[in-house]
Known about the structure:
By secondary structure, the protein is an alpha/beta fold. It is 35% helix and 21% strand. It has helices at 18-30, 57-72, 75-79, 95-106, 120-123, 129-136, 170-186, 201-204, 228-239, 257-267, 287-291, and strands at residues 5-9, 33-40, 85-91, 110-114, 141-144, 154-158, 189-196, 208-211, 214-217, 250-254, 272-276, 298-302.
Amino acid sequence: MKINHILVIIDPTIEQQPALLKAIPLAKKCNAAIELFLVVHHSALAPNWLNREHPQEHVIAEYLKTKQRWLDRYLALGLEENIAITSEVRWHKPLHGEILKKITESHTDLVVVSTHQHSAIEQLNFSANDWQFLKACPVPLLLAKVNNQADYQNIMAAVDLKKSPGGCRELDRHILDTCVMLSEYLDASAHIHHVYDPKGHELWQGNNLSLLGLNIPSYVSPVPPSQLESYHRTEFFRLIEHYAFEDENLHLDTGIAANRLTRSVIKHHIDLLIMGVRDHAGFIGNTTGKIVDHVNCDILALKSASQEIH
């Protein structure tokens, strides 16, 4: 993971910007440029059927100038650290559509957003901003929490040992490589964590039977229950055999992944949790989606190289 350009999404509803505060140390260590990006839309200013004959372009232009002046106040935070930093404001709705367009235009390597706590109802709503963007973002996405310290001391890579259709663990290795790189850049401790279901449910996924041309989920685990621990231990250490993690920072656990991972983050004082987002999983069923609101640390969400844009 090479970081040359960091796109920081500015939240116009708050004054302190956690995303920018987290991006600055990363930019310094990686010698990267930062671009502040603000997308705005105000329904009261938008043309509608009542004022079609009186275009509002000049009103919108003045509104954007006001927002640009507000945004430019944050440039000083980067300039003080000798970081190349720029800003841009755009008018668009929906907001995330324009952000995704900007990512492609600017060849962004990392997107950083300030994330908010979702209510239980919002967690079930696919249109909630953070949830939607987590699935759609085509580059690494850093979810920055409010009131966390800017410098990362303990970084944890969460791997699930699932293989891609080609039989390799591309996403897990991407997570490990990123964890190692950031821990070296930031002089932080690197941890690795894997949780498996003692009943082997996670191994059932993807094992389908073909009947009359239909794919039917098979509920027969390919690994006998008595061999689950041995299987996961073997695969876990095979995955990390070429990495130099400290023994005390290797965490192999059993139980429900979201619950055990949340406890591990607290126990080991993790500041940054690196997780994968798989495109074939439903969002509610994805551990990354479940854990966003339940850990008090930043989350770096990665996709496999085949899912990301370059």
